[in-house]
Amino acid sequence: MKLIVAIIQNQDSKRLADEFVEKGIRATKLSSTGGFLRAGNTTFLIGVEDRRVEGVLALIKETCSTRSQTMMSPPSYDFTLESDLTYPVDVEVGGATLFVLPIDQFQQY
Ligand code: 2BA
Ligand code: 2BA
User: Fold this and answer.
1) 3-class DSSP state for residue 108?
2) Is the pLDDT of residue 14 over 70?
């Protein structure tokens, strides 16, 4: 068995959760925050049998989209420069960041 940790964008989370229910894939949804953008994203924990891992990853890939997000650049603290104002920067946010971990034990009481 494997634990898939999937960090995805909030916009895709409802659709992905619906897909999991429809396909009988058990999952837990957590609200999370990206360390860089400091914006909300969604983390799914999905415990699955080894043979289902590839199918789950493919489902996540087809459900979640890459998007561009605008953030304000940090202000420059070099006061010798005139450009000490913040300015908008486009950041490409991936459809999903995935980790697949081995599970030593799976128990439910
Ligand atoms: P939920 O996903 O909200 O599921 C609540 C209960 O609904 C489950 O209890 C189970 O009895 C039933 N259930 C869930 N998915 C089902 C499905 N596809 N078909 C039929 N019945 C289904 P538990 O199995 O005790 O799970 C309690 C909570 O533990 C789950 O809440 C979920 O958040 C988490 N969980 C369970 N198995 C998981 C797994 N393999 N991976 C990640 N999280 C899991
Ligand atoms: P954030 O940390 O808010 O990052 C959002 C996007 O900003 C990233 O998209 C990446 O394109 C960019 N970015 C992040 N850190 C950067 C840096 N130090 N310099 C320049 N650009 C940077 P993704 O790579 O698709 O990541 C989306 C979200 O997935 C991240 O949100 C974070 O919550 C999570 N994530 C990505 N890689 C991770 C890792 N290695 N470990 C844990 N979480 C990760």
Assistant:
1) coil
2) yes
Cβ of 41 below 6 Å from ligand 2: yes
Q: Contact at 8 Å (CB) between 64 and 95? A: yes
DSSP string, 20-44: HHHTT---EEEEEE-TTT--EEEEE
- Ligand 2 within 6 A of CB of 90: no
79 has pLDDT over 90 = no
What residues are paired with 89 via a beta bridge? 71
Atom of ligand 2 nearest to the CA of 41: 33
Of all ligands present, the nearest one to the C-alpha of 20 is 1
Dihedral sign for Cα atoms in the order 23, 96, 65, 13: positive
Q: How far apart are the first and last CA of the chain?
A: 18
Within 10 A of 91 (CB to CB), how many other CB atoms are there?
13
Q: How far is the CA of 11 from the centre of ligand 1 (A)?
A: 23
